[in-house]
Amino acid sequence: MTILVTGGAGYIGSHTCVELLNSGYDVVVADNYYNSVPAVLDRVEQITGKKLARYECDIRDREGLKKIFSENKIDAVIHFAGLKAVGESTKLPLMYYENNISGSVVLFEEMAAAGCKKIVFSSSATVYGNNPIPYKEDMPTGDVSSPYGRTKHFIEQILGDVYRSDNEWSISLLRYFNPIGAHESGLIGEDPNGIPNNLMPFISRVAIGKLPCLTVFGGDYDTKDGTCIRDYIHVVDLAKAHLCAVDKILGTTGIEAYNIGNGKGYSVLDIINAFEKESGIKLNYVIGDRREGDLPAFYADASKANKELGWTAEYDIDKMCADTWNFQTKNPDGIK
Ligand code: NAD
Ligand code: WQD
Q: Is the pTM for the entire model greater than 0.90?
């Protein structure tokens, strides 16, 4: 079986390529390297001892996609390619709609043209907006606070319409919670350009001395220690969820959404404490103002994925922090 992985050189995509190759799938990656480098794919090959096919291709490039589908018999697609910076999306909404939504539409059209109607889509817990916690898949979605989040909601809706128009499609919408951590080899991990927006890469850059101080966004929330609660999930657990979803869509038709989280909430201070324990480094941080748009607390009810995909997260926050630190220390300047 051959899987096309869009955005396969990125953070979650690269870890998923490792799991796919290790499970015997053939892998074809399409990435424009906007937020990644080809060397990541060399490292995927190094970890697995297997080769993958790679195309420098933008998903908005119809001819590029036609070439991929004509040169490979693709059985299913895992669609990671997209822009993901929430703050940037509020300043550049059209760039996000064009890249994420227009790109996805071109991809779905070319999949249909090639007769490949099986897809796993990277969605996000952000589609739930302000629902009661824990989030469940049957809750209303779409009351989202950023253009980025709306691209995820709209693409879910588009895929719903695609399925309703043609019941041969098999679609899995994976709603990720907060992926952190890295492959235990330390060869691949999260390597953002510039100043990180997300908590874990910010923490590890402070720990390695590349940034002076972490600001904890808000210490006065109505939570156990006043800081926000999130559902952190090890990226390798998340990657494995894609294997389960691919196995499922290869044998069925339909459209289903699944929460991919640990089902546990940890505060920002819990993460800082776990990171300090695993790295042996005392982290320089201050409690600052709240960040606009942050919800106080959310985490997953992941029981649907547990039951229907046969997937359960295995790793705890100590392992997430240990693997993040291992990647950071082995790649102090990132992957070039
Ligand atoms: P990433 O930026 O590391 O990976 C995305 C990859 O897609 C990059 O390699 C980038 O170069 C590529 N890409 C972007 N636009 C493209 C285009 N038009 N054509 C081809 N390639 C393109 O991000 P990630 O953290 O690995 O996230 C992967 C997916 O998961 C994204 O869709 C993201 O929105 C979604 N997601 C991420 C998180 C998270 O916290 N990391 C949470 C929920 C959902
Ligand atoms: C986690 C916690 C911050 C940075 C985002 C997207 C979401 C999904 C995952 C893609 C929050 C706090 C952070 C810092 C801090 N992505 N924090 N200081 O906001 O939960 O989710 O990434 O789909 O859609 O919104 O993740 O890592 O930015 O923040 O105190 O410097 O850490 O307030 O409580 P978030 P995050």
A: yes
